[in-house]
Amino acid sequence: MSDSSIVTEGRAPGAAVDASGGAERVRAANPDTATLLDLYTVMAGIRRFEEVSQALFRRGAIRGSIHLCMGQEAVSAGVCGLLGEGDKVTATYRGHGHALAVGVDPLGLMAEMLHKSTGTCGGRAGSMNVIDRDHGLLGCFGIVGGSIATAVGAALALQRRGDGVAVAFFGDGAVNHAYFYESLNFAAMRKLPVVFVCENNLYGEFTPMASVTPGGILARARAFDIPATSVDGQDVCAVRAAADEAITRAREFKGPSFLEALTYRFNDHARGDPFDYRPEGEMQAWKARDPLTITRKQLRDRHGVSEEDLDQVILQVRTRYETIQRDALAAPLPEPSDDWTEFKPTRN
Ligand SMILES: Cc1ncc(C[n+]2csc(CCOP(=O)(O)OP(=O)(O)O)c2C)c(N)n1
Ligand SMILES: [Mg+2]
Fold first, then answer.
1. For a pocket test of ligand 1, which of 73, 147, 205 has the largest count of ligand atoms closer than 8 A to its C-beta?
2. Which range has the worst mean pLDDT, 14-28, 69-83, 211-225, 321-335?
3. Residue 75 in contact with ligand 1 by CB distance below 6 A
């Protein structure tokens, strides 16, 4: 375990870590080599998906808006890698990573970005609002905090069914919205099998989270007696370890948990970002802790995987996305006359 996998509340992962411990400490799990390689491959896939999407957006092939999660890949990969059949996930408009991490077909997702009829939602959702119930993805929500309420509702259904966990991904900006409180209160009161994963990337659009969140994020969850932990969101092993505890607690019917994953978005919020709100050097400090670089180092140093094998993973991902991009671009748009009510997600 490296020190970098431990953080305390409010500490930027780029900063030195207080190894003296404390209640917030989360020990990184040591996934076996095959598991960590899988996680690396998933993260590399998310990164490439978004690089391709960004290029398509810039040249006008993707319309509307896209919200990229580059820099935050370890959170979705670390949590979703522990989920299985019957579990449910909700995410935000920054949801490409979560969709890919739960197993949504990347070609379908890319076609969806391009509003093609072969897209995950038949071209109707675009980048922001993807649903894939076959993979437990109940929705990516454009409404800040929408993912929280929906996951709580899903958790109520799962509790009645007696099996399964719901995971809500949301940003730091959501913790000051009213239904965050209603949802956490209800989940705690009913001991629902739900894990709240707050991806604290330090900003809600262009507003620093710390300037609008007195008392911090964890205190909000603890007010409802929900166990809450901060974790280094750049380290997939640390995220996985913390998520494992939370998911296990939910599966044992012990109630909800709350994870704050400290992370950083490497790109603009979306279109029209003024790029003037980050302190100088902040982006560089976080890029030095790129989740892909950290995982690669872990694979090399702890697991003895060679640089050549790691390069091979990246090469395969790149090759795969060349085909995906070509096929998605070649796919047909929906016909204006299509009956759009025909799109029926396949499973409840
Ligand atoms: C209910 C609601 N209010 C306002 C907005 C406008 N809005 C879109 S993104 C965003 C910032 C959210 O920040 P955060 O939750 O930290 O997520 P991030 O974008 O950093 O991933 C806001 C305020 C919205 N979509 N929904
Ligand atoms: Mg944010």
1. 205
2. 14-28
3. no
Ligand 1 pocket test, candidate residues 144, 262, 266, most atoms within 8 A of CB: 144
Count CB-CB contacts under 10 A for residue 123.
Answer: 22
Q: What is the mean pLDDT of residues 124-141?
A: 96
300 to each of 1, 25, 303, how far by Cα in Å? 14, 25, 6
The answer to whether the CB of 201 is under 6 A from ligand 1 is yes
CB 6 within 8 A of CB 238: yes
Q: Which ligand is nearest to the CA of 72?
A: 1
Q: What is the pTM of this model?
A: 0.91
d(CA 177, ligand 1 centre) in Å:
10
**Alpha carbon of 13 to ligand 2 centroid (Å):** 15
Question: Binning pLDDT at 50, 70 and 90, where does residue 17 land?
Answer: very low
- For residue 142, which atom of ligand 1 is closest to its CA? 25
Q: Which residues contact 50 (CB under 8 A, 6 or more apart)?
A: 68, 69, 70, 96, 97
CA distances (Å), origin 346, targets 138, 186, 342: 12, 29, 11
**Per-residue confidence (pLDDT) for residue 339, from 0 to 100:** 63
- The number of C-alpha atoms within 13 Å of 30 and in the hemisphere containing its C-beta is 5
Quick one: residue 264, left, alpha or beta (phi over 0 = left, psi -120 to 50 = alpha)? beta
Distance, CA of 91 to CA of 102 (rounded, Å): 11
Q: Are 53 and 111 in contact (CB under 8 A)?
A: no
Which residue has the CA at smallest separation from atom 18 of ligand 1?
171
Cβ-contact 294, 263 below 8 angstroms: no
For the stretch 28-60, pLDDT in tens is: 468 999 999 999 999 999 999 999 999 999 999
The Å distance, Cα 304 to ligand 2 centre, comes to 35
Q: Is 260 in the pocket of ligand 1 (CB under 6 A)?
A: no
